[in-house]
Amino acid sequence: MAKKILIVDGNAILHRAFHALPPLTDNQGRLINAVYGFFTILLKAIAELKVERLAICFDSSAPTFRHKVFAAYKAHRVEKPELYAQLPILAQLLKALKVPVFAADGYEADDLVGTIAKQAQQEQLSSIILTGDLDTLQLVGPDSKVYVMRTGVSKAVMYDRQEIFKKYGLASSQMVDFKSLIGDPSDNIPGAKNIGPKTAAGLLKKFKTLKCIYQNLAKIAPSVAENLKVSQQQVLLAKKLVTIDADAPIQLALSKAKIASLDFKAVRAQMLSLGLKTLASRLPVKQAGQESQMNLL
Fold first, then answer.
1. Strands 144-151 and 155-159
2. Helices in 50-85 by DSSP H: which ranges?
3. GO:BP terms for this protein (predicted)?
4. What's the pTM value of the predicted model, to 2 decimals?
5. CA–CA distance, 84 with 82 (Å, rounded to integer)
C-alpha cells in the first residue's frame, strides 16, 4: 500500500472552522474559534485517514494570475477582519509544529495543493486533499482523493473517482469543463447563460468535453445551443479561471513532511500558553515503545 500525504487547503479549512464554531477566545481575550476549529479538523483527519506526511497550503495576499485575466475575480467577497486577525495565531502554532507551509505570490492555495499532489505522485505517494469546498475535485485520480468537510468540523465526504461519478455522472477529468459551463458564483466566475448543473452534466455525458460540445452545437436543442453560443467567450474565460495550475514554483521536501517528525511538544506548549487545554490534549502523545496516538475524545 502506498504511503499517503495529507495536503491541506488552509484557507478553505480556516473559513470552514470560522463559520462552524461559535466565538471562542484565548486567555488574552483574542477571538480564536477559527484556529481552534482548524486544528480540530486537522488532528481528526490525521488520525482517521492514517496519513504519514502532511503539507499545508495558503493563499498569498498578492493578486493571482486569475485577477490579471479577470479583474472581477472574487471581487464581491467581503473581508472578515475577525477571521483574518486569527491568522498570526495560526501561523505561530504551525511554525511551532514545524509543518511544511506553502504560499506563493500569484497563486492560490488550490494551485499549490495541485502542485504538491503532482510531486507526491512522482514520488509514489498517494494524496488526500483536505478542503472545505469542491474546487479540487478536478485533482481526483488513481492516486489522489479529496476529503471535503461538509457539516461543522466533524462530518466529511471522501471523493474518489467513483464518488464523483455517483454525484455527477461524470469523470473527474470532466470537472473543469463542468465548472466552466455552470460558473462559480462564490468566486464571481460567470458560466454559460441559463446552463445549470443538470444541463451541463447532460451535455458532458453526451459529448465528453467542452470542445466537442461547441463543435456539435447543431446537435443540441436550439435554445441551449444559442445560450452556449452567446456565452462562449465567458465559458472559455471560466475554464482559465477554474483550472488548477499544478506547476506552481514550490517544492515539497518529503523528509520535512513526515508527521512523525513534527514537533507536537512545542505546539502543545504554545497551546497551553494560550489557555487551549482541550485542544492541547488532542495532540498526539508518544508512549514508551509505541507510535504517536491521538486523543480525540
1. antiparallel
2. 65-69, 81-84
3. DNA replication, Okazaki fragment processing
4. 0.93
5. 6
Considering only CA atoms, which of 2, 94, 97, 95 is closest in space to residue 51? Answer: 2
Backbone angles phi, psi at 167, to 5 degrees: -80, -40
Q: How many CB atoms lie within 10 A of CB 261?
A: 12
In this structure, the answer to whether residues 208 and 61 fall within a common structural domain is: no
Cα–Cα distance for residue pair 283/270, rounded to 1 Å = 12
Output the CA angle 292-293-297, nearest 5 degrees.
155
> Each residue of 151-170: b (16+ CB within 10 Å) or e?
eebeebeebbbebbeeebeb
Residue 206's contacts (CB-CB under 8 Å, 6 or more residues apart) are none
Same domain for 236 and 265? no
Same domain for 124 and 10, yes or no, is yes
**Cβ neighbours of 94 (radius 10 Å):** 21
Strand order in the sheet with 155-159: 101-102, 53-57, 4-9, 126-131, 144-151, 155-159
Give dist(CA 101, CA 7) in Å, integer: 10
Residues 145 and 254 in one domain: yes
Q: Which residues contact 4 (CB under 8 A, 6 or more apart)?
A: 49, 50, 51, 52, 53, 125, 126, 127, 128
Residue 30 to residue 23: CA distance in whole angstroms? 10
Q: At what angle do helices 232-242 and 222-230 cross, to 10 degrees?
A: 70
DSSP H/E element including 156 = strand 155-159
> Do 144 and 69 share a domain, yes or no?
yes
- Res. 295 pLDDT band, cuts 50 70 90: very low
CB 139 within 8 A of CB 129: yes
- For residues 57 and 132, give the distance between their C-alpha atoms in angstroms, rounded to a whole number: 13
